[in-house]
Design brief:
The structure is a single chain. By secondary structure, the protein is of the alpha+beta class. The protein has two domains: about 1-75, Glutaredoxin; about 90-200, Glutathione S-transferase Yfyf (Class Pi), Chain A, domain 2 (Up-down Bundle). Helices cover about 55% and strands about 5% of the residues. It has helices spanning about 10-20, 40-45, 65-75, 90-115, 125-145, 155-170, 175-180, 180-190, 195-200, and strands at about 1-5, 30-35, 55, 65. The protein has a four-stranded mixed sheet, with helices on one face. Helix 4 runs antiparallel to helix 5 and helix 4 (about 90-115) packs parallel to helix 6. The protein starts with a strand and ends in a 6-residue tail after the last helix.
C-alpha cells in the first residue's frame, strides 16, 4: 500500500491523485491529508522540503515532486493505459503542456502566499510578474495547444491543465481568466465533468 501525503487545496497533489485514479491505482493508495502550513510537522516528516504531494511507496524511498510522482505511477501501472502520450500528443508535447500548467500553478500559489503577507510587505512587482506569467501562458495554451487536447483525461497534459485552471477558479477568481479565454473555459467545463476531476475539486 502506497501513502500519498496530500492537501485538498494543492493543485499539484490533485494532479497526482487524478493520475493515480485514471491509471487504476487509487485503491492502492492511502491518503494522508496534511496541510503544508497547518500540519507542517507531518509534511516535513515525509518530505524534508515541507511540500506536498509526497508519495511513500511502502518499500523504498519517498517520491517527491508531482511530475516525478506521476511518472512513478505510470511505471507502476505497467500494462494499463499510457497517460504520457496519445495519438494527438507526443511525449514531448505532454511534457511541455504539463510544464506550462505547472508553471501556472506555481505562479498562482505564489500569488496566494503573497496575499497572506501584511499589505505593506507585499511586492507589487512580483505580483505583476506572476499575474503576467499566468496571462501569457493561458494565451499561449489557447492559441497553440488547445486544439490538440482531448476533452477527457486522456493524458497528463489534460490532467495538469485542468488542475491548474481549477486552482485559479478556487483561489484567484478575481483573475477572471475564463472571460478572456472562452474556448479554454468551454474545454475546462467539459473536462471537469470527468469523475476523477469532479471528485477531487479543491476544498478548504
Amino acid at each position: 500500500m502506497m501513502t500519498l501525503v496530500y492537501s485538498t487545496t494543492s493543485p499539484f497533489a490533485r494532479k497526482v491523485l487524478v493520475m493515480a485514479t485514471e491509471l487504476g491505482l487509487r485503491e492502492q493508495i492511502r491518503l494522508e491529508i496534511a496541510h503544508p502550513l497547518r500540519n507542517a510537522g507531518v509534511v516535513s516528516a515525509a518530505n524534508p522540503l515541507g511540500k506536498v504531494p509526497c508519495l511513500l511507496p511502502g518499500t523504498g524511498p519517498m517520491v517527491i515532486n508531482s511530475p516525478a510522482i506521476c511518472r512513478y505511477l505510470q511505471r507502476q501501472a505497467q500494462s494499463r493505459m499510457d497517460l504520457l502520450s496519445s495519438a494527438a500528443l507526443s511525449i514531448t508535447d505532454v511534457e511541455r503542456i504539463e510544464a506550462l500548467a505547472d508553471g501556472v500553478m506555481d505562479a498562482a500559489v505564489a500569488l496566494v502566499m503573497e496575499s497572506l503577507r501584511p499589505q505593506e510587505q507585499q511586492s507589487p512587482l512580483w505580483q505583476e510578474r506572476w499575474n503576467s506569467a499566468i496571462a501569457r501562458t493561458l494565451q499561449h495554451i489557447t492559441s497553440h495547444e488547445l486544439s490538440a487536447l482531448s476533452r477527457t483525461t486522456e493524458t497528463l497534459a489534460e490532467i495538469a491543465l485542468a488542475c491548474a485552471l481549477g486552482y485559479l477558479n478556487f483561489r484567484l477568481p478575481q483573475l477572471a481568466w475564463a472571460e478572456a479565454h472562452p474556448a479554454l473555459k468551454e474545454w475546462f467545463e467539459t473536462v471537469s465533468r470527468v469523475p476523477s476531476l469532479s471528485d477531487t475539486a479543491p476544498a478548504d
